[in-house]
Amino acid sequence: MKRNKLFRLLVSIFLVPWGMILLLLAGESPKGLLALVSGLGVSFVVAGTVSAFREVAIVRTESEDAAEDIAARLQDRLQQPPPFGLRLVSPQRRGYDGYYSWATSTQPCELFCAGRSVLHRIDADLTARKFAPVEQVMLRKLQEGSVIRILFLDPRSDLISRLAREEGQNEQQMLTDLAASLDICERLYALLKGASLPPRAELHIRVYDQVPYFAYHRENKQVIVGFYFATALGSLSAAFEVIDQESQSRFEGHFTSIFERSHSTRILEEVASQRAVPFMNHALVRDIRAALEKSTS
To answer: Which residues form the DUF5919 domain (predicted)?
Structure first.
């Protein structure tokens, strides 16, 4: 750096005497070619003087200012670590607007929702916002080329009574919510049978029989979770955004493993990629309906 500065300064100084020599050669009243030589000499003198002044008086100050600015910015970055973990976005999950940006968007998205009754809760919130029923909104998103995955609790699970008791919820109400989610699946299937979908569209709705621990919602790269507590209903608990990618992977990994273990006997409804024909597991629906009727009778 110092060598470059010294070289630039020497060149600048060298230009001044060369300019003066050219002025002397041109004489006092140069004409023609000598006038060009005189102009060139003046240019050398001015350029050398200005350049030398800049190297001595200005560049050093500019370099010091730039170095101080870089150091200050670097220190700020080091003192402010990247966001990590969870950030509270709503004191109550029920009715939180951040859950439904996918429903208002006209762009394809990747949606993964998992929890207890899921579809029942989505439909209730959309209805409160004067939206179309959830099955119609999901059909539109599939027609836009979205990939949708839904996981809700199997109504036949022995966990139902325990989970309802832990939240202080009526068991029959939880079963009613799950029955509403099943109704939505059947209405969606009826719509899909007469619909035309793009090849990239996918739908996967499955039931599972494991403790959920938390509700999971991912729209593209945004992840929101809500925890189930013994002190309140799940939908009344707070909503948290999962900020960093590592934490997002950990939360999604829980339901991804459940999703992958939900073999054919728990696949409720599907539209596979590159296939326009929807699939509905009618045998599973009948079995769940029978279990619901037995539980609520």
So the answer is: 139-217
The reply to whether 27 and 46 lie within a common domain is yes
The parent domain of residue 157 ranges over 86-296
Between CA 226 and CA 217 the distance in angstroms is: 9
Question: What are 288's two structure tokens?
Answer: 């769940």
Q: What is the pLDDT of residue 1?
A: 46
pTM: 0.70
DSSP H helices, the chain, are: 2-26, 33-53, 59-79, 101-104, 119-128, 134-143, 159-167, 171-193, 245-261, 282-296
Same domain assignment for residues 257 and 283: yes
Confidence check: pLDDT of 58 > 70: no
Assess contact for 152 and 178: CB atoms under 8 A: yes
pLDDT in tens, 65-84: 565 666 666 566 555 556 67
Domain final residue, candidates 79, 100, 135: 79
DSSP 274: T
Identify whether the C-beta of residue 161 lies closer than 8 Å to the C-beta of residue 171. Answer: yes
Number of domains, the chain: 2
